[in-house]
Specification:
The complex is a heterodimer of chains A (249) and B (339). By secondary structure, chain A is α/β, with parallel strands linked by helices. Chain A contains nine helices and ten strands. In chain A, strand 9 and strand 10 form a beta hairpin. In chain A, helix 3 packs across helix 4 and helix 3 packs parallel to helix 5. The chains are: A alpha/beta (249), B mainly alpha (339).
Chain lengths: 249, 339
Amino acid sequence: MSLFVAEGLVKRFGGLLATDHVDLAVERGEIHALIGPNGAGKSTLVNLISGLLPADAGRIVLDGVDLATLAPHQRVRHGLARCFQITSVFRNDSVRDNLLLAVQAQAGSSFRCLRRREAETALADAALALADRTGLGAVLDRPAGVLPHGMQKRLDLALALAAAPRLLLLDEPMAGMGPEDSVQMIELIGRLRSETAILLIEHDMDAVFRLADRISVLVYGRVLTSGDAAHVRGHAEVQSVYLGTEAHA
Amino acid sequence: MNRPVFAPSRVASAAAEHPRQPFAVRFPGFVRRLPWLVLAILALFPLLAPALGLEYYVGFVRRLLIVAIAASSLNFILGYGGMAALGHAGFIGVGAYTVVALVEAGFSSAWLAWGGALVVAGLSAALIGAVSLRTRGVYFIMITLAFAQMLYYLAVSLRTYGGDDGYGLYTSLEMGAWLDGVHPDVFYWVVLAIAALVFAGFSRVAHSRYGHALRGIRDNETRMVALGYPVYRLKLAGFVAAGAVAGLAGGLLASHNAFVSPAIMHWTQSALLLVMVMLGGLGRRWGAPLGVALWLVLEEALKMHTDYWHWPLGVLLLLAVFHAPQGLAALFERREANR
């Protein structure tokens, strides 16, 4: 059985069918890339799976648990974490405080209101470990908002990793990055393969072909085809709608 | 000679080099002790006032402390939680009318009355918050305002409790044999103790897990959801706590004035509370008491000289917006970040 299955997902915005009966599966240990032209509904799909948008129909099953009726924060408890296309960190807080907030969400109750958080060494240790894993150890005390873009994207990823997800949704982790930052991010994502399955949305084809075990192509809210890199590269319809029409020339 | 980093001489020389640095950086020791100094002065004030000819102001300071309790609770949800509630006076009113109802029913214990004010206002906040917190932004402002107005008109319609004319509490509530009669100003010290407890409580909570989570929600709610936080329940808990404390302030205000009328919960009172908190410093530890003190002291001082005291207060607000947009408390804080 697949780790993650989405079945018949539908989302309408008025008359627009943004997600048109999408079926998608992610296996354990797999990096599954989702590609498609702008407006294909990739980010909508991530929002449906993570629960930030309610789906109009369909099932979302992770490890045998149907998440479709659960609130987004409950889905995180079941092992589903996500990153954001537009970097979403706590800009005014230090990197350390960002990580502490992420770690705190997973360790005990956040309704505790008398003990000072600084006194909780277990949280501080977990935050440090997370910083080391993601290469943020050197910038712990800098405000997140002043970090270079590549670092902010990495922090965004670190925040998601704090949940120790079984499925990680990455919405364009390489967006707006220079070549060096991209290389580092590709390495980091590659290392995560042993910890969590990943559904990767990305426009950087280089990254997709290097990382993905399987690629699904989304066009007009529908999955056009799904398969390994060679299959997708050779697919005539994919070439025409996505990679360009030179193939026909 | 080895000196610790914050040794006086180094701080003094740093102050000379950077005269524009915040007050707290220039005089850290003084600023750290200032709260205790203020508390000591406040505690001794009723004893010193007669000698200074300031007896009248004991009552004024008592009112100031009660308003500061209410403002602290608003600062907690608005400044730390990002919940722009425009109906906070509603909870003050619920607290005050709870006292009235208990007195009318024949109870005379102050602790029961104030405790009742706290609990009933907390329950009201749970009901109102459960609905209001499903909305965001302007809708939240409007819906909290709407609920407060409903409470206001409910109070107007309550004939048993005087309706529009209000209700006089002719005998003061009993605080118990061991307190009543000790000193005529014992109520002042009770209010001071409650204000100090409330203030210390909110300060403590601000640095706890819960306080950090609340600020996270204020700064980036979507991310907090994605991190797995039960955002709605966290906000509701803060809203209920703030409503309960505002209700307690309302109960104390009823005792202070020995009179309760619907005017106490008019929406302009909610707005005034907002202005005071913003003047003092939104989301800052000292924001609420500083804002309340500045506003009420100026109001009192200006009233002595002119009937048109709203004018200079308006000018003051404009000055504050342009020169201290972070509020008065920002001048006293060591760090820029609102902690």
